[in-house]
Automatic annotation (TrEMBL):
Top-level division of the source organism's lineage: Eukaryota
Protein name, entry field: Uncharacterized protein
Length: 238
């Protein structure tokens, strides 16, 4: 089963990349550019949308629930548009994109982030920084370009043969960059992502409190300030 999941994830990633490559008008892209385009798609898969798409009111984009990180229609729409990220052509040693997490909220600034990639030698350094107003910590990751993108200098091959170890790349970027920041953003807005205790509907949490003895409630309220406050309110209503 695990092998099938990896194959499906790779297939989905390659399909999205194929759509973006069609929009590049068959331009020859550097290994670094090929890698950043993959990073861009993985960001889309993890609930991030280019801010320019929102500003331009791209039709069909839908907000995600706090427990979800992807939506097929969002992926299809975003990958049908030319990538909006900045690249320092022709050197292709610097890439950047402004994202916003796909979540319905009136506090849009708290959902914004900026992805920057710097290429130095055979490595790509990635940083994902939240909006300054949030005071959240940024995330970073380092990628070996040759580990994931095969040199195509000897001739153009199929897209599938241009990449390797895509499942490892997806796992690394999801775990080190995109999922942690998205969870921080959602938590800041009170839209607690599942799986977490605060991600359970409030009505169900109240029912859980009713079945706990005082000693158990005392232990639970030490988990976080949010739970502490909620238990205090619950006790005052008893």
């Amino acid at each position: 089963m695990e092998g099938n999941e990896h194959d499906d994830a790779k297939k989905s990633l390659l399909e999205s990349l194929n759509e973006l490559y069609k929009l590049s008008e068959n331009k020859v892209l550097s290994q670094a550019h090929c890698l950043f385009m993959t990073v861009y798609v993985i960001a889309l898969q993890t609930g991030f949308i280019p801010q320019s798409f929102i500003v331009n009111r791209l039709k069909g984009l839908v907000p995600l629930d706090s427990w979800s990180t992807t939506h097929k229609s969002n992926m299809k729409i975003c990958c049908s548009q030319p990538p909006s990220y900045h690249c320092d052509s022709p050197h292709e040693t610097y890439f950047s994109e402004n994202f916003i997490s796909a979540l319905k909220s009136e506090e849009e600034d708290k959902l914004k982030s900026k992805l920057i990639a710097l290429v130095t030698g055979d490595f790509m350094m990635l940083t994902l920084s939240p909006h300054p107003s949030t005071n959240l910590l940024g995330r970073s990751s380092c990628l070996s370009i040759g580990r994931y993108v095969i040199d195509q200098s000897e001739g153009k091959n199929s897209l599938d043969s241009c990449y390797q170890k895509l499942d490892q790349l997806q796992n690394q970027l999801r775990n080190e960059l995109f999922v942690p920041l998205r969870m921080d953003q959602l938590t800041l807005l009170g839209a607690f992502p599942l799986p977490s205790f605060m991600g359970i509907p409030r009505e169900l949490r109240i029912e859980i409190y009713k079945h706990l003895i005082s000693k158990e409630l005392h232990k639970l309220q030490r988990v976080s300030k949010e739970i502490l406050l909620e238990i205090k309110i619950f006790r005052n209503k008893i």
